[in-house]
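Forum > Structural Biology > Help requests

Title: Can anyone predict the 3D structure of Maleylpyruvate isomerase family mycothiol-dependent enzyme?

Hi all, first post here. I have the sequence for Maleylpyruvate isomerase family mycothiol-dependent enzyme but no way to get a structure on my laptop. I'd be grateful if someone could post the structure tokens.
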Amino acid sequence: MDIFEEIADERRTLAALVSGLTPEEEATRSLCTAWSVREVVAHLVVPLEVGLAGFAVAMVLTGGRFDRANVHLARRHARRSTKELVAVLRQRADSRFTPPGMGPEAPLTDLLVHGMDIRWPLGLHRDVPAERVRTSLDFLTSAAGRGLVPRGTSDGLRFEADDVGWAHGGGPTVRGAADAVLLALAGRPAALDHLAGDGVPTLRDRLSAARR
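Reply #1:
Sure, ran it for you. Structure tokens for Maleylpyruvate isomerase family mycothiol-dependent enzyme below:
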């Protein structure tokens, strides 16, 4: 598969997962604390339906704040039925949209991280293909992906995903399975208890400070 085929596969996999959730599971708070599981799904639908002009309008309505516009659009789309949201993920799975100035690694990473935002609180496990996780780990530790990582998160630390043979950086070590490393880099404190190494206390302090 090329990376766009991987993105399409991730959207279809997510659609299959969501179609089987109960209303209670959809209402569960995700690891992305601003959103419920259902709102995370709606967020992933937004770029498939809202163009740059629509996002610009949302920015105006939310005082020019990107994060607030993101939350606003996700919550607006979450008013739709689950059946509608799943249908969009399936029908537009092959979309090649990428955020301005970014490549396909950005939407792939968004899908992987938010997929875990949904599955982890629900206790649902999935073995993500190793190459996809490595692509996203490379992206989040690159200059292009730094905007999606809380500032300073990875500075002076060495991250190791020991199940996929991936490592980045130098300094005190943060080590664990690739999904936990990916979530930690994306700023999710829930991953910290699944990581080991002398760099974990520093990372914990940084993620705590980023959420204040």
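The longest strand covers residues 158-161. The radius of gyration is 17 Å.
Shout if anything looks off.
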